[in-house]
UniProtKB/TrEMBL annotation:
Pfam families: SPA. InterPro entries: FAM45 (IPR042431), Tripartite_DENN (IPR037516). This is DENN domain containing 10. Belongs to the DENND10 family.
C-alpha cells in the first residue's frame, strides 16, 4: 500500500497485476470542482448571486442554512467556483454544528463558507457576514459589512453577466464559470494597474492616490479598495 502511494505521489502512476494501472492525470481535480451547478444557484437567486460573488471575492464569512445536509453540501461546494481564479475549496466547512469546539474552530478562519442544519445559526451574527437561508431563498448582508459590500454599477454589470450567461440554454456550467472568470480577470487587471512596488517589497501594493485619480463611481472604488485588502495588496 505504501509503495503504491509513494509511486503515485512521485511518478503519478501506480501499476499492479491485480488492479491494473492508476494514472493521477486521469483524475483532474477541476472535474471535482465542477461537480455542482452554478446555473442552479443563479436560477434560485438571480441577480442576488452577485452578493455571493462579492462576498467570496472579498473573502467574507458566508453561512448557509438548510434543514437538509444534502442541499447544503450541493450548494456550498459550488460557491468557490464563482472565484475560480483562486482554485480554493479549503474555505468550505459544509457541515458545522453549533457546539463550542466547532464554532471556535470556525472563528479561527478568516473567510469561509459554512453550512448549518440548525436554524439557530441565524441568531449568531458573530459567525457570518452574509447569511444564506437556502430553504427560503433569502440572502442577508450583516450590518458589519454593509460598507464593504455596497453595490453599485460594477456589481450590476457583474450580476447581469452572471444571469445572462447562466440563463443561456446553450451554455454549460463550465462555460458560465469561464464567463465569470474572464470578468474577474478584467477586474483584477484593473486593480493590478493601480499598484506599485516600493520599499523593497516584492508584492505590489495598491496606490490609493492612483485609485482616487481614476474617479471611479464610489461603490467601484470602495470595492477595489476592499478587494486589494482581500488580495493582501494594501500597505500595512
Amino acid at each position: 500500500m505504501m509503495e503504491s502511494y509513494i509511486a503515485v505521489l512521485t511518478k503519478g502512476i501506480c501499476q499492479s497485476e491485480e488492479n491494473g494501472s492508476f494514472l493521477s492525470k486521469d483524475f483532474d481535480a477541476r472535474k471535482a470542482y465542477l461537480a455542482g451547478s452554478i446555473k442552479d444557484i443563479v436560477s434560485q437567486f438571480g441577480m442576488e448571486t452577485v452578493i455571493l460573488y462579492t462576498a467570496l471575492m472579498l473573502k467574507k464569512r458566508i453561512v448557509v442554512y438548510h434543514p437538509r445536509i444534502e442541499a447544503i453540501q450541493e450548494f456550498t461546494r459550488t460557491l468557490p467556483a464563482l472565484v475560480w481564479h483562486r482554485q480554493d475549496w479549503s474555505i468550505l466547512h459544509s457541515y458545522v454544528h453549533l457546539n463550542e469546539e466547532e464554532v471556535e474552530a470556525l472563528k479561527a478562519c478568516t473567510g469561509y463558507v459554512a453550512g448549518f442544519t440548525d436554524s439557530e445559526v441565524s441568531s449568531r451574527p458573530d459567525l457570518y457576514d452574509v447569511y444564506v437561508n437556502l430553504a427560503d431563498s433569502e440572502i442577508t448582508i450583516s450590518p458589519v459589512v454593509k460598507e464593504a459590500m455596497t453595490m453599485g454599477k460594477l456589481h450590476k454589470e457583474i450580476g447581469q453577466l452572471i444571469v445572462q450567461s447562466a440563463e443561456d440554454p446553450d451554455k454549460s456550467d463550465s462555460q458560465v464559470i469561464k464567463d465569470i472568470s474572464l470578468k474577474t480577470k478584467e477586474i483584477l487587471a484593473t486593480l493590478v494597474s493601480l499598484t506599485e512596488v516600493s520599499d523593497g517589497n516584492e508584492k505590489p501594493t495598491l496606490n490609493s492616490e492612483a485609485l482616487k485619480q481614476k474617479r471611479f463611481p464610489p461603490a467601484t472604488e470602495n470595492f477595489l479598495f476592499h478587494l486589494a485588502a482581500a488580495e493582501q495588496m494594501l500597505k500595512i
